[in-house]
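Intended use. Records like the one below are meant for learning the mapping from a protein sequence to its folded structure. Do not use them to infer anything beyond what is encoded.
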Amino acid sequence: MQPVSFGRHAPAVRTIVHLSDTHLLAGDRPLGGAYDATGGVAAALAAVERTGIRPDAIVVTGDLTDLGEPAAYRRLRELVEPMAEQLDAPVVWVAGNHDERPALREGLFDEPGSEAPLTAVHDLGGLRLVVLDSTVPGWHHGLVDAAQREWLREVLAEPAPLGTLLALHHPPIPSHIPFFDILELREQDELAAVLAGTDVRGILAGHLHYSTSGTFAGIPVSVASATCYTMNLQRPATEVNGMDAGQSFHLVHVYDDTITHTVVPVVEAPTGDYFSAEWVERMAALTPDERLEAFSRKPALAS
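Structure written out for the chain above:
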């Protein structure tokens, strides 16, 4: 069946799977003695497969491992790469504050270990995805330093056909959680000055272990939650801690005039079966007015 647009928007021109904060440990050890980080990645990938999406990229925004162990990077690669190959989608790895640059380079890129920032530019069929490295070796707070900002300025000097997305670990937006404020991205004003007037349409980030969004320098920022554990935001901000629930990832749909970021829970749960491919096919066979009549009109109330 040919795709039919049921609303005003044509289908997305590009799609991205956005995961974050996998925090793997070597030997599949439980994270903090409590959380199955390896199982979290596997569950997230299974959920991606169930969506039926064929993304243009799988982006993982940092804290790929918890301690920067070489074996943990190899294990992560074993989990993610087969799914990426199945979907024919490149994997875009982003460094986080729990990662170690030398081991990350060796384990995920087959490159010699180096403390140089892990930056990259990916062309996703006209959509430019720029990877920034906001990690500070030996520390947990974030920074896109002056050298990296100058590199970014040069990359953004020419606009891309479908615009640009940035991917980094530390989100340049506020958190209402005190300990995250200590570990925030620093020199944000200087980064904002680089982005002013460019074709950057969105920023993908992680670090917080909960889904949130905001704007930075007028640019939408979308933070994906974690696959390992999330933050229990039902507590007062001063008492927020991790919990083994609510793991999710984002589906990013890029349209000509907007970008959406959809939170997809990883948990499997009983689901209704009213809407189906067959239902969509029946709707597609109708005219727009017939479709409204069949699905939008409310039944008359009994008198």
